[in-house]
Each structure stands twice: as structure tokens, then as C-alpha cells.
Amino acid sequence: MTESQQWYEEHLGPVEIIAFELPTDSSSEPWDELLTAVDNHQIRILDLEFLHRTAEDEAEVLDADSLTEATGLELPAFAGSSSGLLDEQDIVDLLEDVSVGSTLSVLLVEHLSLLPVIHSFESHGAQLVLAGPVSGEDLASALEDDEEL
Questions:
Q1: How much is the average pLDDT of 57-76?
Q2: What is the Cα–Cα distance from 45 to 108, expressed in whole angstroms?
Q3: Of 5, 7, 114, 149, which one has the greatest count of Cβ atoms within 10 A?
């Protein structure tokens, strides 16, 4: 294994959590797009959870094979994609604004497209100090502040 290959094996690209409340008649097209992104090595799925809110204070974790009843989706390509990286508190926080009867898809993804850039910076002496997502609220606030100037 080359030094470069070893570096890629030991590092993660930026990681982001993305959650979607799914309609009861979901289309498989977005899931095809997700698979394309994985196949094109743009992202790596670290965890994929499906959460169905059954009552105000209850939810069940579904696997990809049991989504058909809740969403109409059949996603055999995602069977076994749950790694359990989301903990119980993550699930409680995510379901806070989701209505009873809704199903939430939660993706934990690694952005692979930036790994070569990070590698290049580090191999030329730079040290990564911070990597992380910017919330939509923070971005909107910054854009509003910029418009006021």
C-alpha cells in the first residue's frame, strides 16, 4: 500500500447528517440519485436509518426492507445500510418536529470529493483545524447580515 493510499484509509472527508420527512407515496428516484452519488465516489453512506413516528412519544426504527407499508418504497439496495451510529438522543432530537405517522430518512454521509484537497493541503504542510457543517439557519443569518451592509 502506498503512503497516499494509507492516508485515504485513515482519514474521513467532511461528514454531514441529512434528514428527510418522506411522503407516504415516496418515489424511488431520489434513492437512485443517492446510489449514483455513491457509485461515483462522491459520498460514502456511514449510516442510513428510517424512523417512523408512531405516537407523540414513540417511534420505531425501520430497516430498508420494511419501508413499503409506511412509504410505498422498496429499497433492496439499502438493506443492511443501518450501522447504528445514530444514538437514542439523536433520534429523539430528529423526531421533535416530525408529525405522528411520518417516516424520517436519516443519512450520515461522508463527502469523498474533498479528500484529495485535504490530502494535498496536509501533504504540503497545512494542518486541518476545523471541518464541519454550517447550519442552514446560520447561513441564512449571515446572508441577511450581508444584505444589511
A1: 82
A2: 6
A3: 7
